[in-house]
Specification:
The protein is mainly alpha-helical. It has a domain of 173 residues. Helix content is 73%, strand content 3%. It contains ten helices and two strands; from the N terminus they run H-H-H-H-H-E-E-H-H-H-H-H. It has a two-stranded antiparallel ribbon with strand order 1-2. A hairpin with a 2-residue loop joins strand 1 and strand 2. Helix 2 runs antiparallel to helix 6 and helix 3 runs parallel beside helix 6. The protein is globular, with a radius of gyration of 24 Å.
């Protein structure tokens, strides 16, 4: 293989890939640590959290008033602080991606929505109605991402899946979610080991063509591993008597604090719904 000069302007493809996979694994491990910490939401029954947070999400999405959505966002941030979720984590993993992605998608609405002109820019009119539309979309998305992050960061994945069965979610969906989460982590670790092994055997800097060859070969190997693994797991589950019925070891019991929290969740959801539609 040909090599470029040893002077590197920055990390190569292998280094960036290993770093990206490591960050994904670290993020999952940090979320698991948060779910086991002593916070407000961590102490509640998963069914209560799922009912309360998703009722707030539904109200925020359906609300006609931006003020109600902002209030729910503020309450969600307050719950995150009480649950020991760092503001920095919520900003970089929830709000910033939401602002960038949703803001870019909604940007044309600023100028294409007819209404009262607010600012004129190069023949285009930024309207009051367009600004309200963009703000409403961004805040709704921010509330949805924040509440989902609260649920995932304060509840372990097996307990989330067990709680889903109490809301009569089909067992097929619960099984697919559980298996996907487990084996995505496994394939991430496999990919990290594969790229680290490749990096240890590379001397110098690879050319762009060699980078593409490594990426293509690595994708093919991971696909082959995932197909083999899915077949082996299916046969192992069948040999152990699995026929589609999900059995969990979690036995949820509602305590006094759970009933109080459920009442508060329902009260805030009812007041927000009334204020958003009145």
């Amino acid at each position: 293989m040909t090599r470029k000069s040893a002077n590197k302007s920055g990390p190569g493809f292998l280094e960036r890939t290993v770093y990206g996979i490591s960050r994904a694994i670290d993020y999952a491990e940090v979320s698991e640590d948060h779910s086991n910490s002593n916070g407000l939401l961590q102490a509640l029954d998963p069914r209560v959290k799922m009912f309360g947070l998703f009722s707030w999400l539904l109200v925020a999405v359906c609300s006609k008033r931006i003020a109600i959505t902002l209030v729910l966002l503020a309450v969600g941030v307050f719950l995150g602080v009480l649950s020991r979720i760092p503001i920095r984590r919520m900003f970089f993993h929830a709000w910033l991606p939401t602002l960038l992605f949703t803001g870019i998608m909604a940007l044309p609405a600023l100028f294409l929505t007819p209404g009262i002109p607010l600012i004129e820019m190069g023949g285009f009119h930024l309207t009051v109605q367009g600004s309200a539309t963009v703000l409403r979309l961004v805040t709704r998305t921010g509330v949805a991402v924040t509440l989902c992050m609260l649920l995932v960061s304060t509840t372990s994945w097996p307990r989330i899946l067990a709680a889903l069965r109490y809301f009569h979610i089909p067992s097929e969906i619960v099984v697919m979610l559980g298996m996907s989460q487990r084996y995505i982590h496994l394939l991430l670790r496999l990919a990290k080991e594969q790229f680290e092994a490749r990096r240890c055997r590379v001397v110098g800097q690879l050319s762009g063509r060699e980078h593409r060859k490594i990426a293509t070969a690595s994708a093919g190997v991971l696909l082959h591993h995932s197909l083999d693994l899915s077949g082996e797991v299916f046969l192992a589950m069948q040999s152990r008597g699995f026929r589609g019925r999900v059995r969990t070891v979690d036995e949820f019991r509602m305590g006094r604090m759970d009933w109080i929290a459920a009442s508060i969740f329902a009260l805030i959801a009812g007041l927000s719904f009334y204020g958003g539609w009145s």
